[in-house]
Design goal:
Pfam families: SURF1. The protein has a domain at 53-195. It has four helices and eight strands. The protein has helices at 8-50, 154-157, 175-182, 214-254, and strands at residues 54-55, 74-81, 87-93, 99-109, 114-123, 142-149, 169-170, 190-195. Helix 1 (8-50) packs antiparallel against helix 4.
Length: 263
């Protein structure tokens, strides 16, 4: 009754099922790894955001690459803004997904070193070649607080570093590039300003990073493993249905009612 399993159709179906099971198991394992990675990142971000602010020079220095553990750490810096050399970062969105600029202003520390400060988001200019109007920061010596961030790269962000842009416009925030442009010692990375709040609410401060949805990856992992378990169950159901249909067809063929009467 099971000789039909040797037919071409059933051999192909069985091979496909045998391939699907390990594939789905591996996909579930990959999703579980993604869940663990995202959970770990969420923990790092939560700990960094919850830590007390420390002076920025305790975590970074000229040429320093901000590490994963240092990212999002709250830092403070005392000095003054240098608006003469500030630039805007193109193609950045706010919380409403409106496209505009981030305002990047050098912050001169007491020892003369420069810290790059992302002061927030402003709307785009009427034309891409025009320099937008930027609200001025507080004058004189102040203390700023912000989240420490690593230098942006094309590899990490996917943003192409386009050359030949209009004056004082950039694509990526990179302390090494800005140090060369300004001819100064710039601390590695930059900070996203969180305090003091700007007058009039502009530039619009960049919101806190949200948690990645790690639970979704966990659900996908369970889903793939359930699919893997369902493949042999489905195969058995199909085999039994095929066997039952063949048996019913054979019984109908051999039944007396289907046999012609003899004279």
């Amino acid at each position: 009754m099971y000789r039909f399993l040797l037919s071409r159709q059933w051999v192909i179906l069985t091979l496909v099922a045998l391939l699907l099971i390990p594939t789905m198991i591996r996909l579930g394992i990959w999703q579980m790894h993604r869940y663990e990675e995202r959970t770990a990142r969420n923990q790092l971000v939560s700990e960094a955001l919850g830590a007390k602010p420390v002076p920025v020079e305790k975590l970074t220095s000229p040429g320093h690459s901000v590490t994963t553990d240092e990212r999002y750490r709250n830092v403070t810096a005392k000095g003054r803004f240098d608006t003469d050399d500030e630039v805007v970062v193109r193609r950045r969105t706010n919380s409403d997904d409106e496209v505009g600029y981030h305002v990047l202003t050098p912050f001169v520390l007491e020892d003369g070193k420069v810290l790059l400060v992302n002061r927030g988001w402003i709307p785009g200019a009427p034309t891409q070649t025009a320099f937008p109007k930027i609200p001025a920061p507080p004058r004189g010596e102040i203390t700023v607080t912000g989240r420490l961030m690593p230098d942006e790269t094309t590899e990490a962000s996917g943003i192409k570093d386009i050359k030949g842009l209009p004056d004082r416009q950039i694509m990526l925030i990179n302390s090494a590039q800005e140090a060369r442009r300004l001819g100064v010692q710039a601390l590695g990375g930059y900070i996203v300003q969180t305090a003091p709040a700007p007058k009039g609410g502009t530039p619009e401060l960049i919101g806190r990073p949200g948690n990645e949805d790690a639970a979704l990856n966990y659900a996908y992992a369970i889903q793939w493993w359930l699919f893997a378990a369902g493949v042999p169950v489905g195969w058995v159901i199909l085999v039994r249905r095929e066997r039952r249909e063949r048996a019913e067809a054979a019984a109908k063929t051999e039944s007396p009612e289907s046999t012609p009467a003899t004279v």
